Amino acid sequence: MEYSVSRLPAFLMALLLCGPVAAEVSVVDDTGATIRLARPARRVVTLAPHLVETLFAAGAGDKLVGTVEYSDFPEAAKNVAKVGGYSRFDLETVVALKPDLIIAWHSGNAPANIDKLRSFGFPIYVSQPDRIEDVASEIERMGRLAGTEKVADAAAQEFRTRLADLQKRNGQKPAVRTFYQIWKQPLSTVGGRQIISSVIRLCGGENVFGNLDALAPVVTVEAVVAANPEAIVASGMGEARPEWLDDWKRWPTISAVARNNLFFVPPELIQRHTPRLLDGAEQLCRHLDTARSRRAK
Length: 297
Description:
The chain is an alpha/beta fold.
């Protein structure tokens, strides 16, 4: 039987004239809040450098219209409009970009600023991946929000496969007591809930300050000496090994100093909650293997 267009039901006519209707998307963020969008996001603002990397990994980099300073990976991120720093971004600039999705960093963005943006009606996905495994989930959720699930799901699976391989290769190795130093003044490290602690555990290490609950606790030199780590790992701020890492040579009683186990991992590989975290893990695992090889026979 043949039908003329004029005899089609109204809803079918709408489909013919307007094309496919974008489906509503819904995800739960890392605070437990449900984010709902009438259609996949087309204009995204991210409020931390690591969020940019994850968005690109999810295949949605072309939807990014604004981000913060130091968002330098991948290369295309350098050309995106900047709205200030993650701790002090410009609210008016964010609003002017007219995003249909804002991705925020729970432990890095000021809560008052996030609440202000939310009061303007912007949908805000809040990110806080505290475990290595959470990175894969983050990729998947960003892909869903942006309508790039195919790319995102493949990237997440690749991450999980690589992570499983690292777990298999390092899970049974003898523990190495490790002090991870973020900065010199104040002398700061990572607590047990921080994702870097997960990387240390992945490599068969034991964070000597893993009992601390704060994400980035300040400690004393005396506390480090008393903990007597077998390896000291520093990151600093740039691609070069920080000069202050060698300051520990003043305390030759520390096992890490006595055995020359003073190691460096670039901060962008281990301090960002992104797929490149596994690159940092590879380096850290090699350093801890070196520390094991320097034990007395």
